[in-house]
Amino acid sequence: MTLPAMFLNRYQQLMAPAEFTAFKQSLTQPATHGFRINPLKASLSQLQESVAQPVPGIANGYYGQIQGQSIDHLAGWIYSQDPSAMNVAQLAAPQAHERVLDLCAAPGGKTTQLAALMNDQGLLVANEINHQRALVLSSNVERWGLTHTVVTNNSPEQLAQALPEFFDCIVVDAPCSGEGLFRKDPSASDYWSVANIQFCAQRQKKILTAALTMLRPGGRLIYSTCTFAPEEDEQNLSWLLDQPQIQLLPLPALSKMDRGRPAWAQQRMAVQGALRLFPHHYRGEGHFIAAVSKQGTAPSTRPAGKSLKRLSADQVQLWQQFQTTTLTGVSFKQLQPQAEVLWAPAGIFPQSQLKIIRNGLRLGQFKKKRFEPDHALVMALSPTQFQQRFDLTAEQFAHFVHGEALILKNKAYAPGWVAVSYQQKIFAWGKVVQGQLKNFLPKGLRIQ
């Protein structure tokens, strides 16, 4: 990788000679890989991946590279994530009773980590302005088996208009110039420029302004980037601290983490409360993390959403029939039909103002005289909540992930829906029909 000369010149001027040499050398090394285990599902003893190298200070975080087509990934037991990035959600410390917003959430690493730390309780809103990236985010939320997460596809300004002073905790992992990811994606350095840094810094201020509108008094905001640029890091934190009611929350530094640098923000000493993760010190890619609070004690506001629509008598009958024949010990506090789709909603929101892609758990769809369960439901339940489960052999798994139906030699399975697993890890629905196991693994998840 050839780094831009102006990029190197900037940091040669900003850093002492010895540090610049180490910094430059670190950018020629391979990227660091990591993954997190899903505590809502996974059993360490059944993992294929090695957990010999835990990431310090990170719950369920480990160093290592995973395979995207492995059963552990397909079943939502693991998530690939840069070790540095894991620190953002960990430092946000979301609580199970809180309302939390991941404002720039795609592809979903921080969302799934926040949800795990909340034990899939409370309310987590994961927003992404780009529609295609929001669909990827929603898919990862589904794979992780989350039930209390809402995925939205709005601009920060739209979200702020709908949900003022609503959240206890907001994470803004802002789009940035990406200098910290040059090792991971060398082509990103081709687009580097000072003009882009300045553009990103201004865009980040707009995002943060919307975030502050949505933060309740007494709430906290965690701001992070994956760049080294002072304009996007210390200088934006300094700007943030100048906003009304905003106060710094100094972050604890683990070994090999650096403090924010006052010299990079017109000698604003308060920025030392932020953290810098440099690849020549910390084992991970480049990252900046800061936290602030909004002074005051007012409770979070409640959005004006419509009351839940009731199920028709036919829909109630079909859902109860499915529950009785397929599930055990499963109940939901609320059920909400939207057209023919049945949801267990995570919250009630003003639909006219928000573009909601996923509100809680999508249970399935009412079709002609039957209820067809959604993939999200099989991913969210535990093995003990299914009346029937079919564990595949290695040969059967290879056929099933290609989308094939299987001939059942064991006639003990009753006709109807079954949870399909491999190595005891559930990853799809199947349906027993006339001696066959019909395949309901979504086409987008099949291996061609």
UniProtKB/TrEMBL annotation:
UniProt GO BP: RNA methylation
Amino acids binding S-adenosyl-L-methionine: C104, A105, A106, P107, G108, G109, K110, E128, D173
Signal peptide location: none
Catalytic center residues: C226 (nucleophile)
Keyword field: Cytoplasm, Methyltransferase, RNA-binding, S-adenosyl-L-methionine, Transferase
Gene3D superfamilies per the UniProt record, alphabetical: 2.30.130.60, Sun protein, domain 3, Vaccinia Virus protein VP39
Keyword Secreted: no
Pfam families: Methyltr_RsmB-F, Methyltr_RsmF_N, Methyltranf_PUA, RsmF_methylt_CI
Residue span, SAM-dependent MTase RsmB/NOP-type domain: 6-295
GO molecular function: RNA binding; RNA methyltransferase activity
Transmembrane regions listed in the UniProt entry: none
PANTHER family according to UniProt: 28S RRNA (CYTOSINE(4447)-C(5))-METHYLTRANSFERASE-RELATED (PTHR22807:SF30), NOP2 YEAST -RELATED NOL1/NOP2/FMU SUN DOMAIN-CONTAINING (PTHR22807)
Name this protein carries in UniProt: tRNA/rRNA methyltransferase
Species, as recorded: Bombilactobacillus mellifer
